[in-house]
Request: fold
Amino acid sequence: MNYLNETIDSLHKKLSDKELTSKELTEKTLNGMKDKEKDISAFITVNDDATKDAEKVDQEGINGPLSGIPIAIKDNIVSNGIKTTAASKILYNFMPVYSATVLEKLEAAGAINVGKTNMDEFAMGSSTETSFFGDTHNPWDFDKVPGGSSGGSAAAVASGEVVAALGTDTGGSIRQPAAFNGIFGIKPTYGRVSRWGVIAFASSLDQVGVMSKRVEDSATVLSTIAGHDDHDSTSSEKEVPDYRANLNKDMTGVRIAVPKEFWHEGTNPEVIKQINAAIETYKKLGATVDEVSLPALKHAVEVYYVLASSEASSNLQRYDGVRYGFRAKDVKNIKDLFVNSRSEGFGNEVKRRIMLGTFALSAGAYDAYFKKAAQVRTLFIEEMGKVLEDHDLIMGPSTTTTAFKIGDKIDDPLAMYMNDILTIPANLAGLPAASVPAGLADGMPVGLQIMAKPFNEQAIFNAAYALQEENKFYEKIPTALKGED
Amino acid sequence: MISKDEILHVAELANLKLKDDEVDNFVSQLGKIVDMESNLASVDTDGVEPTYNMGDTSTTFREDKGIHTQTREQMFENVPDSENNLIKVPTIVDKEDDE
Reply:
């Protein structure tokens, strides 16, 4: 199966018209994956029982839009009976005994989980290179990273292995890989989607979202997974709209803010050129565009790496080798068991974040780092909120560059962290944000980032859909895949 | 800047044991990152409330009622070592050096 020219709607029609069964579609999907995985390596675990799940859906009959449709799931979202590792050695053998709420909701809608996608270990990274299970390759250039941390989900969608995938986004982990792979990806408002069963990285920032080639497909999936969950008290009780049915590409009178700090000198001029062209498209479609300023942006990376690392150091205390996961051998006492299991089980980047967070929370550093960062976060939220009082959307580039070469930045953590500067703001402020393909720079995809007011995902879908219908980027076939034919 | 002693202290707090070359690496890498984070000191935050949590809900209540989730057997599926239906771990009180 090749999904490059398919949508959830086109597949749903084939299934409804009995042109093919979900079992056949799932078999084709698994075969297509087998073919493409040689070059892409987007998956950590393929769900070999997916055809059985599909058979069950066939028996029950095709109902809603996702009924019988294969979808990929990032490997930090727990799946009952299917290995879930968060791409870490410390969970290399972990077999969940329940499923995350998002997965339960997808399965209740008839979607088929075809496999668990590769990612940076515990979602800490921007290139999928920190995975214990090896690199994933960008379908536009196999020598380049797919971005991260949801790099496997992005590459699986961009290469046509699946029509849509779930990702998670703590500081840009959906939007940056979406941009690098030339697909759409949305991180909803904090609290829009349940985090129950999502392996925690930074609990005040983490959010599950969707990646797909077409905007309308992510709209369908997000309506399915969003909503309140008794298991997650931070999940909102606000009603979930039917984003797909409400899609409206009319941009007349839409007020767009462009923060001048997003056009900073460090951003590749070719990327800027594509973003400026996208902004011009919105003007042509009737939107108004104002330049605004977000002075606190220059501290975003600092705030993020203090807070995210601190929350991570706390969340990752649970991995101790006792109840599940990797357990170190030849230890003489319980303290050794904890220390050795953690030291052998966590990779370099995860240790680095745990160290950073433990430092920021330690006596003597707490006020100057953790509390200070939390205060600057407040200023940041206020600043973004003020801009959104007079504007419907904030736009800018999703990333400062296009995808970089595998190996280029992995030894320079600070350079890697700076990658996230444009995506972090939405997480710090809890805002919904997406990346939509804007064009190509030196042959690699560029993503336009769109942010909106809390719980106004619809405004993002609408604007992204408007651009998609103008530039029809989804018609482009990733360059490295062409070489295959 | 962050000293070697500080790195070793933080590693101890985090239950991590670092190899010598890892310690050296962390001294230089974490030093650079912490220096970057120290820029926060230049922001005036007098009287600003910190944001520690997100979400639009406050404390939520539920009925005080047990919910059936996983069985004991299921919970044991991932336990690395067990005996008599209990999780097995090495000695907790170390006899050799009597910590």
